## 1
Amino acid sequence: MCGIVAYIGPQEAHPILIKGLKRLEYRGYDSAGIAILNDTLKVFKTKGKVADLEEFIREKDVHGTIGMAHTRWATHGEPNNVNAHPHFSQSEELALIHNGIIENYAVIREELRQNGYSFQSDTDTEVLIQLIEYIKKKSNASLIEAVQSALTQVVGAYAIVILSKTDKDTIIAARKGSPLVVGIGENEFLLASDATPIVEYTKDVVYLDDEEIAIIKRGESLKVKTIRDVEKFPVVSKLEINLSQLEKEGYDHFMLKEIFEQPKTIRDSYRGRINCNNQVISMAGIIDHVDRFMNADRIIITAAGTSWHAGLVGEYLFEEIARIPVEVEYSSEFRYRNPVIYPNDVIIAISQSGETADTLAAIELGKQKGAFIYGICNVVGSSIARATDAGSYTHAGPEIGVASTKAFTAQVTVLVLMALALGQRKGTIDDASIQRILSELQEIPEKVERTLTLSPVIRDISRMFTYSRNFLYLGRGFNFPVALEGALKLKEISYIHAEGYPAAEMKHGPIALIDREMPVVVIATNSGTYEKIISNIQEVKARKGKIIAIVTEGDVTVKELADFCLEIPSTEEMLVPLLATIPLQILAYYIAVFRDCNVDQPRNLAKSVTVE
Ligand code: M6R
């Protein structure tokens, strides 16, 4: 979604801002703009990519040591030059960039129109800056007072940065619902919607909380107060990411890099959480709140997209290992359907970005009903990580490709550990089984390495299916979420229609689609339902569908039936998702590459979905 970066300090602002926007490109956007404050306040913006903006400002006067820049992902109004941010106020005294949505913009715009204001764009953002100017002028208020007053009137989500022509040494920023981070460097400050543009300059950051306003003045220390004028003490955190994690490091795409990072990221996810004789799982979030888990009649997992698929694997894990009933909910549905939530429910919210608006809202709903909320997040310091009662980070490192890969396997790894930790305490799994599964989990990184060697073969297979119009993915048990995840990967980056199904459900409808044009990816690894899935493969074969099978090394039966067979190492059934997902990620990747798609920034998609 939209990206924000702002700078004040001794350096030329615009190279820092452009570089920052490039770091934020992964979030997804369709236009970009920049404002620089020197002798006057200048705004340049254009539809298209940051490179287009760079070209646009090449000959312009963009000198100055204070400025802000934005990448816009269109919500209100089509992507064009006018709707791009920054937006000026009527007098052009103020300019604003904004992430989020002002829900009551139409009412405010009407009131402002009646007071003589006119609007250039179709955006909700322009309404906000006009409102601030209107309040400032009408009440003879300071800029801060006008911002505070305006923000108490708006409904919705915002992360905003404001520059004023009449105050050439100040940046005002505020947030509610959309993230905003302030980086504190040597005599300089950076602001951004996530840490990626900041890490190059400083590791000291302050995460603004909802309804907080940052007042940043050249040569002074950061001041934070709320929209209701309560002074806050800014708490400085240390960034844990480093610059190399934000580079492609020789890979053609971030997605490919992230796929190949999985041996390391899975290891990082369990590192320090298993003791040396595989007997104890130590997860502070569980140890500190063990009673909440022990007394829970059920667990509700809430998430979106890939994280929801990890949640489905979690359902199988918790029920199998810890014998706790689990419901897995799409956050977007859960938040609006008046769900039954009991105070002794445990809600697990899973999110890579930690910023997904629907998941944040689901958490708020759970909190209101008194449930205990546990977060599984990748981004340290993210809104979800801070909104939950406790949680575990996945430690997968920054995920830049819009298609989630390493975050999924890291989430599943954490869920395995949680299920084992709870099963151990509840006595629903014996020590020998725990030791066996944990020692197998520690074999997974090496087995992922072996699975990654399938890449050239998968590349060849991908070439054959580059122009397929549809794909079906089938799996059972722990591999059903894997089928869903494989289909999602393919559709989001290659734009080929793909469906994931529990294999046995195929005959209740999707079988009608199968003909010689239909590739069917079947995850048919060794499991309790292996024989059953062979029957499903036969059903596809009888209708001449093309079968790409993921099987366990040494498989004989499926090999004879499938058109293409990809063998992955043998492991515990519950750990298979950590391996079986890998070839599906690679398949989607190469098909998208052969179709000339923008793999890392697929059309219409955003990396962190901060609007509902
Ligand atoms: O950051 P989150 O994990 O909360 O994001 C949830 C989904 O938006 C995300 O998984 C999305 O489906 C990905 N593009 C999938 O690859």
## 2
Amino acid sequence: MSNKAKDIVSKLTLDEKAALCMGKDFWHLVSIERLGLSEIMVADGPHGLRKQAEDADHVGLNESVKATCFPTACASASSWDVNLVFELGKALAEECKQEDVSVVLGPGANIKRSPLCGRNFEYFSEDPYHTGEMAVAFVNGVQSQNIGTSLKHYVMNNQEKLRMTIDSVVDERAQREIYMAGFEKCVKEAQPWTVMCSYNKVDGEYLSENKRLLTDVLRDEWGFEGLVVTDWGAINKRDEGVKAGLDLEMPASGPKSTKAIISAIEDDTLSLDELDKVVERVVDLILKSQNTREEGYKYDSKTHHRLAKKIAEESAVLLKNDGILPLKKGSDIAIIGEFAKTPRYQGAGSSLINPAKIDTACSIMDAKGYPYEYAKGYSVKTDKVDSVLIDQAVKIAKVHEYVIIYAGLTDSYESEGFDRTTLDIPHNQIALIDEVIKVNKNVIIVLANGSPITMPWIDNTKAVLEGYLHGQAGAGAIVDILFGDVCPSGKLAETFPHKLEDNPSYKFFPGYERTVEYRESIYVGYRYYDKAQKDVLFPFGYGLSYTEFKYDDLEIDKHDDFNYTVSFTVENIGNRDGAEIVQLYVRNNESPIFKALKELKSFRKVFIKKGEKKKLSLNLDKRSFAYYNININDWHVDAGTYGVLIASSSQDIRLEDKIDIKVKDNVVIPDYRETLKCYYSIKNDILDIGEKDFEQLLGRDLPKRERVEGELYNIHSTLHDLKGTLVGNILNKIVFKKLKSLVPEDKNAEDDTMYTMMYNIAKEMPLKSFGMMTGNATPPYVAEAIAALANRKLFKGIGLLLKK
Ligand code: BGC
């Protein structure tokens, strides 16, 4: 902590200290001009700047200033290019500088536990190492410009369903190895200025007052030096939050929080020392931010558009190519699908960017002078099959040599605020593809989606190019790949299963009314598919190129017991230049503790000219071989033989060698071989882990899953909980009427995503958070009054309302 911050804090009154612990409004921090602390602003991210000039909200309802919409995290993650993600972060920071925003709210480092999570498009990967590397690059990029980041949503927030109240029940090893490791890497290697704690609970405690996670682990173990901010409205008891290490509450929620802090100090339940630590961190953030302001700074939007295109080029994943791609320029082409004119290039919610410019497939084809005929094929506003649109599409598909269908998920299929319910793309698009493939043998599918989909039609197509949600300039990147100006080089940072039931969390997602049990433990993504020997549609790390790479000359240099350098050569043996993503997996030893077969421990994206050979070296350290041992609360390497796999995808191993780790120690390795066989022999079936088994792994009883009949309501109860009570019904009506009026007419008319998102958020929002939803027009005692009325404590309820 800087001395200056300490000095300023020593001059603050108690009221000022308490005031600094909460934002001034939706996006600004409190200023104390007499001590030189000016007002600073924070704004969403993560794939562009969402600075709201006027009306503020946290779900993308009101417009923000124009900014570059870069590819979303699901796309940039598929580039596996840390330098490019650094550049993205740097450019985003430049936009912040122009707009006088001090901290950008991202990156999102949550793990893609289920392909259904509505917000997966904002996250990087199913793998923690990959996630960590991307998050580090992003944070370093932004912070290289002296703009702060907010690593979010810390932690175990892997679904939208009941995100504000759910208790994530995760065994400690899975917490550490899967869900926290990406955050850990980012904190240790990049020191984000802030970390945003998530809404949910872990171990029965809201993150905003979870001392173990906010202080013991984040600060004491990982050495985090920055500030912890709540997700918007993720506050519970403010004074408890201070004790737990929660520094800043956002947005402003009225005087209740400040009063709670002051009373706790007066009652001696909170010490001044505890409060000062928190205030110092807030002051430090303000000082850091205001020291780096640059008056009159302007970024170059054309350069940023070009960068957005470059990232999209490197991120698109060629999933299938029967030799049809690249197409010759001037080929006889039909372009089908409304996405070619109305692209889906980002997701809905708090990350919604107001793009400076949008390229579309058709506008790019026109600009390049490539001939084509277009048919809409389906409407993005509905999933109802439209036979007229399909007939028109079939008609043109019959007369052109090639057909490019632009398909994928529409806004109403994935968004912040609700989860997906299926992996299928909308029916009208499936029907269209089915009809077109009957009349044309040269069908190429271009996809826009933020998470895996099923592809029942794939065998009858010649090529599939996954563009993900590729930002405002992505359309140009796709056209350049299709016509061979760019050699595809993205690879999947997540597995595409054949069907939803194949996913390991299938039976346990999204959980119950109160809890979600992560019974699959460490078996997330490829860690599960590998172990279960389950065939997948496309494996983790997979992606095709227009050229070919040959791997050779594997050598391992040992530095000491745990540190190695792994070297090998990669040669471009195809007939064009291209980039390859090389992946290093460590195959686990035979151990008393259950483990994934292999885990990603390093990777590199490398550009290699045709005919050229490059020597690459990747490093392994202690952590590359370690598992988290709950007996010693630490990472531990158990002696044994580990495989070193150099791979082009998780299922395409090119070179292999072994490392013997001989160091033996006295650490007791948890051994469940007799008691929890289900975690050792994972069958090629729908994963089902029994309640008792999970309980044993967890080491405690499972918490209550549902609300018990007759249980009293409180400020944490949701509108959904209150269903069946008179006050609940009345409130329901008022809230939904209000919601309808909040969603701008044009957005309502376009499609119902905005409304569905708001509806879900409102239904699942605890009473205590209603203030935020209504721009603080609802004071906190209203929540208490509603709870009392729902409990039929009429006098108490009315009394509360009247007293205030
Ligand atoms: C989201 C955060 C976002 C915040 C502010 C929340 O609802 O979960 O990701 O940064 O709002 O918009």
